[in-house]
Amino acid sequence: MQTKNVMIVGVGGQGSLLASKLLGRLLVSQGYDVKVSEVHGMSQRGGSVVTYVRYGDQVASPVIDKGEADFIVSFELLEAARWLPYLKPDGQIVTSTQQIDPMPVIMGAAAYPENLVEKMRATGAKVDAMDCLALAEQAGSSKAVNLVLMGRLSHYFDMPEEAWQQAMESVVPPKFLELNKRAFALGKNA
């Protein structure tokens, strides 16, 4: 199988590391060679972060270059737009519509861009955008956006539901497992 590339992007503190661990565990359980990058960027709360997950028969490097991402999974709308140049022409964006003001907006030096979903679609990108924060809160915690996104991403992967569930059980702490399973189901069924 040709190597597939998934970028998980967002803002520090949103749970992108858990999302990448979950996806990596799922793919390993399905027999793929998997490389997951470290978090790049400011992993402290508030900074832009990106992790790469690459999988296939044989994967040499964890790095994804511009124009190579099959999927961009974004926790925040501006981050989806920021990383758009990395998407393949036929790639898929799965994004939360949540907007977190970056520092220039907070300081009043810039305005948060408007109509980002429409602007990304205007480039020809396939964009699956939904209010993941509302679904996470419905599941029981605003911190479960990562599992809502993974549930939504599962639509694009031909892998058994049980494999996703087992991957969750292996990476999510037991006391948060039921909450995270609810969040995953809400994202999947949205």
Descriptive account of the structure:
The chain is an alpha/beta fold. It has one domain: 3-Layer(aba) Sandwich (Pyruvate-ferredoxin Oxidoreductase, domain 3). Helices cover 38% and strands 23% of the residues. Strands 1, 2, 3, 4, 5, 6 and 7 form a 7-stranded mixed β-sheet that branches. The longest helix is centred in the N-terminal third of the chain and has 14 residues. The radius of gyration is 16 Å and the shape is globular. The mean pLDDT is 93.
Key terms:
190 residues, 8 helices, Pyruvate-ferredoxin Oxidoreductase, domain 3, alpha/beta, 7-stranded mixed beta sheet, globular
Show the helix and strand layout.
Layout: E1 4-11, H1 16-29, E2 33-36, E3 40-41, E4 48-56, E5 69-74, H2 77-82, E6 87-96, H3 103-106, H4 116-122, E7 126-130, H5 132-139, H6 145-153, H7 161-171, H8 177-189
Parallel strand pairs: 1-5, 5-6, 6-7
Antiparallel strand pairs: 1-4, 2-4, 3-4
Helix pairs in contact: 1-6, 1-7, 5-6, 5-8, 6-8
The whole-angstrom Rg is 16 Å
State the fourth-level CATH superfamily: Pyruvate-ferredoxin oxidoreductase, PFOR, domain III
State the name of the first-level CATH class. Alpha Beta
Q: Which CATH architecture would you pick? A: 3-Layer(aba) Sandwich
Average pLDDT works out at 93
- Principal-axes shape call: globular
CATH level-3 fold name: Pyruvate-ferredoxin Oxidoreductase, domain 3
- Rounded to the nearest angstrom, the distance between the terminal CA atoms is 30 Å
Major sheet, described briefly? 7 strands, mixed
SSE-based structural type: alpha/beta
How much strand?
15-25%
